[in-house]
Amino acid sequence: MMSSECCGRHRRSLASLLLHLVERHPHSAAFLGASAATAMSYLAVDRPVARWVNENISPFDKRMMDALAHIASADIYLAVTAVLLVVFWVIARRVPAQRIRQLAVTAKNAALFALIAIVTTGLAGIAIKTALGRMRPRALIEQGLYGFSPFNVADFSMNSLPSGHTQFMFTLAMALTLIYPRYDAFYFFFAAAVGVLRVLEGAHYVGDVVFGAYVGIVGPLLIKKYLFDARSLPVRIVLARDRRLAAGRTAAFPASLTPEQGGAEVGVVQRRNGQQVVDEAGHHLGGRTVTGLGE
Question: Could you tell me the residue ranges of all domains in the chain?
């Protein structure tokens, strides 16, 4: 009886410790969770999945998946983002209309944010790949090798963890969500699809994709918090249709109520005064009194 009560107390203590870690240190909790999931995948999932892929997916299908997954190559996205950065910088300096100029400033910040996020997380992914030196599934299938060869820069087959394509696509998905969240489900569906393709074509293990997704998600969050939010540089783009939808939501759910009581969501619309709807940063999102278009 005492043993059962003792086990119950330990379980409650462990649950309380985990809850405290998630609440007070969310980034550390996310790292531990991603690392634990990757480790469990390494021990129990990766080898059987790699063998199943080798036995059931034809070479032709793998080539098709590889071609589809290469839409996640970073080069074209970096070039487009750099061009957009220059275009919005020029508009912000040359266009006299205040509303367009404000939108261009926010869009310029957003392009710079996306560019920094892509480059920074990409470099972080390469550093992790090189340091860990995990062997790719091909080494398991062809040579029976499974494990790590740290700092093996000469052999391309020793850089499986994390998946670079998956990391890039989740970086892009998280950055776009922070910039324009209306289509966030599509962003992350597309990123997850690329990760699945990389496993099914035999290029990566499941654990590689899991940790690649973690790196891709946490990178933009940290960059936004410490580089842009700290300098009050908005990256969230709010268009006219977003302001109309925000105004309609406020009309349907009075802000005087809490979210639990059926009111507006905190941080989306906080106040309605006549025709003025104010977002989380104090920008008027309704009527003809728009004073800001960023976060």
Answer: 46-231, 238-295
- Indicate the CATH number of 46-231 among 3.30.420, 3.60.21, 1.20.144, 2.60.40: 1.20.144
Query: In whole angstroms, how far apart are CA 256 and each of 164, 184, 191, 261, 262?
Result: 47, 28, 38, 9, 10
pLDDT of residue 291: 37
- Banded pLDDT at 223 (limits 50, 70, 90): very high
How far is Cα 101 from Cα 93, in angstroms, rounded to an integer? 8
- Can you give the length of the chain in residues? 295
Q: Is the pLDDT confidence value at 260 over 70?
A: no
Using an 8 Å Cβ cutoff, are 84 and 229 in contact?
no
Task: Decide which of 213 and 251 is more confident.
Answer: 213
* Structural element, H or E, at residue 95: none
Q: What is the share, in percent, of the chain residues with pLDDT greater than 90? A: 53
First to last CA, the chain: 57
Whether residue 35 is predicted with pLDDT greater than 80 in this model: the reply is yes
Task: Give which of 150, 160, 264 is closest to 209, Cα–Cα.
Answer: 160
Whether 173 contacts 190, CB under 8 Å: yes
Query: Could you give the C-alpha distances from 11 to 19, 36, 251, in angstroms and in order?
Result: 12, 19, 46
How far is the CA of 72 from the CAs of 160, 191, 198, 279, in angstroms? Answer: 16, 9, 11, 34
Residue 35 backbone phi and psi in degrees, to 5: -65, -40
pLDDT (average), residues 71-100: 88
Does the structure show a pLDDT above 90 at 167?
yes
Handedness of CA 258, 262, 265, 269 (dihedral sign): negative
